[in-house]
Design brief:
Layout (H helix, E strand, L loop, with lengths): L13 E11 L16 E2 L2 E5 L3 E2 L20 E5 H11 L11 E3 L12 E4 L6 E8 L6 H4 L3 H5 L6 E7 L1 E4 L3 E5 L2 H9 L2
Parallel strand pairs: 5-6
Antiparallel strand pairs: 1-2, 1-6, 1-11, 3-4, 3-10, 5-9, 7-8, 7-11, 8-9
């Protein structure tokens, strides 16, 4: 397996990585007045539901925004390299505090890959997500470490995605990032 790359090389058809962390939001979000971060729940696997999000995310699973447009904020992702850079600067902290549902292994600048497709696993039952929006940090990041919210601004907190095709996502599972839908269709037909 190739190592995850921090830059997308147009000469290569895809980036390969694995799922390094998988989380669902806890019983409540961070609220004004909290003195400590509210952790997410670690899960070994989850089902992605097309056009909706991850099963078990009642607060975040929705197909449509209030204006009836398709939601582009169905799943949150970050890479382990970005987390490691923040931990080096602010001291160690558990990945589940950062409010990312999926952590990818390696250093992958997800905000630079908006529009790209992530294929989890292989074959026709592979879950497919499309990166849609750069994540902007909320005030909950300063509960982890003062100044972390500002450090995560400008694309340093990963990206959001929509679920194009549902399927199983699991810890350690292979993930291939493709430039175009045609590349995804070709990849899932190979197996």
């Amino acid at each position: 397996m190739e190592q995850a790359s921090s830059r997308f090389d147009l000469a290569q058809p895809s980036i390969m990585t694995t799922v390094a962390g998988l989380y669902l939001h806890g019983p409540r979000p961070a609220v004004a007045g909290d003195a400590a971060p509210t952790p997410m729940v670690v899960v070994p696997e989850v089902e992605a539901i097309a056009r909706v999000g991850l099963r078990g995310e009642a607060r975040h699973m929705r197909e449509r925004r209030p204006d009836e447009q398709e939601s582009k904020r169905q799943v949150s992702l970050i890479d382990a390299g970005t987390l490691a850079r923040h931990a080096e600067r602010f001291g160690g902290f558990p990945m589940e505090f950062v409010k990312s549902q999926i952590v990818l292994a390696g250093s992958i600048s997800l905000p630079d890959l908006l529009g790209h497709y992530l294929v989890f696993g292989a074959a026709e039952d592979a879950a497919v997500l499309q990166l849609t929006i750069r994540r902007d940090p909320c005030e909950a990041m300063d509960l982890i470490a003062p100044g972390l919210r500002l450090a995560m601004a400008g694309g340093q907190q990963g990206a959001l995605a929509r679920v194009v095709r549902g399927g199983r996502i699991a810890l350690g599972q292979s993930v291939t990032i493709h430039m175009a839908q045609a590349d995804v269709e070709s990849a899932v037909r190979r197996d």
